[in-house]
Amino acid sequence: MNDDIRVAELRCSIDGGESLGIISTDEAMSKANELGMDLVLIAPTAKPPVAKIMDYGKYKYQEEKKQKEQRKNQVKIVVKEIKLSVKIAENDVAYKVKHAREFLEKGFHVKFRVFLRGREMAHPEAGKEVLLRVWPMVEDIGVMEKPPKFEGRYFNMYVTPQK
């Protein structure tokens, strides 16, 4: 930017569209000073390098505003985790599913997780069965994002709210 540009010639344009063509760096700097703006190098690797005469402070401010607007419009996905076990009782499953339904109604994603302990690792399909018992209880308000999958000592299943 400005005096930090160390090239003899560059292709220059003024913010707003007017092109000055290929001119010396000193000429471009004097033109920028005359207009009360900055000379900013846009494409330093081009032959010849491309520069633009613009109000850099204003440009930077507008970029920050755009970034802020994008962050504001961003949707943050919240994943709630429901932990189950292989030997869980039917009423406990109903209680956990009640909470999962509340989360789905609020628009959160729900991760059902069955932890396999010790000897339960010998029969991991038991964990899958628990998740397949849970699924019919939430399928009316949720979509199965990822079906039950064995990962380490866990069987995981992701459910997202319906649109």
Textual characterization of the structure:
The chain has helices spanning 25-35, 56-73, 90-105, 125-138; strands spanning 9-14, 19-24, 38-43, 50-54, 79-85, 109-115, 142-151, 154-161. A hairpin with a 2-residue loop joins β7 and β8. The radius of gyration is 30 Å and the shape is rod-shaped. The protein contains four helices and eight strands; from the N terminus they run ββαββαβαβαββ. It is an alpha/beta fold and 163 residues long. The strands form two sheets. Strands 2-1-4-3 form a four-stranded mixed β-sheet, with helices on one face. A four-stranded mixed β-sheet has the order 5-6-8-7, covered by helices on one side. The chain starts with 8 loop residues before the first strand and ends with a strand.
Write a concise keyword list for the protein shown above.
four-stranded mixed β-sheet; single chain; alpha/beta
Q: Span from first to last CA?
A: 49 Å
Question: Please, what is the oligomeric state?
Answer: single chain
What gyration radius follows from the Cα positions, in whole Å?
Answer: 30 Å
Identify the overall geometry.
rod-shaped
Task: Assess the beta-strand content as a share of residues.
Answer: 25-35%
Structural class label: alpha/beta
- Helix-strand string: EEHEEHEHEHEE
